[in-house]
Amino acid sequence: MRCFGYEDLPQRMHGAGAHSLDNIMTLQLDVHCWFDKLELWFEAVVSGLQIVSPYAECLQDGKENTYNICATERAHLWTCKPNPIEFKSAYPDLPLPNPAYLRIHAACCRVAHLSGAGEYMDKILEDLEDTLVLSKDGSSAHILSFALQPYGQEVAVI
């Protein structure tokens, strides 16, 4: 992240910082799965600009906290609200999703999709679901590594 200009982001996301309110969003189950699999993301609508993207429908000018839902598959957008959407909170003192985090996620989604990395991730996920026992020769080490990744973060004791 430092290479992309986010100098303090690794430190902010370390330990309990990953669970800060500006890094939390409630999503419908299928949308959450696509978001995690880098198949769905949010692109900020910039006032005064009409952004043309092959991944979104109905792009419009917008305002702060307004996003277009974009996806690698048009069918993913069918269950979503129409574009653009505005993030709101019933509690104004609580933060909305951090726009920088959403920009980073959107960039990762576009890179994964355009580079073919998304297909590789799908293959690992399929292997993980289908594998009940790891191979003795170590050829399934990538599956174990991927499965253990969420547990590799440090636990912060406060």
Topology:
Layout lengths: L8 H4 L16 H8 L3 E5 L21 E6 L13 E2 L12 H17 L1 H14 L10 H8 L10
Antiparallel strand pairs: 1-2, 2-3
3D structure, described in words:
There is one protein chain. 32% of the residues lie in helices and 8% in strands. The chain is of the alpha+beta class and 158 residues long. It folds into two domains: 2-115, no CATH class; 117-158, no CATH class. Strands 1-2-3 form a three-stranded antiparallel β-sheet. Helix 4 crosses helix 5 (141-148). The radius of gyration is 18 Å and the shape is globular. It starts with 8 loop residues before the first helix and ends in a 10-residue tail after the last helix.
Mean pLDDT level: 75
Identify the strand order in the major beta sheet. 1-2-3
Could you list the spans in which at least 5 consecutive residues all have pLDDT below 50? 50-62, 153-158
Backbone shape:
globular
Helix/strand structural class: alpha+beta
Helix proportion: 25-40%
Rg (C-alpha, Å): 18 Å
Number of helices: 5
Give, in order, the helices and strands. HHEEEHHH
Largest sheet: 3 strands, antiparallel
Q: Could you say how many structural domains there are in total?
A: 2
The N- to C-terminal Cα distance equals 26 Å
Number of strands: 3
How much beta, percentage-wise? 5-15%
Would you summarize the structure shown here?
The chain has 158 residues and is an alpha+beta fold.
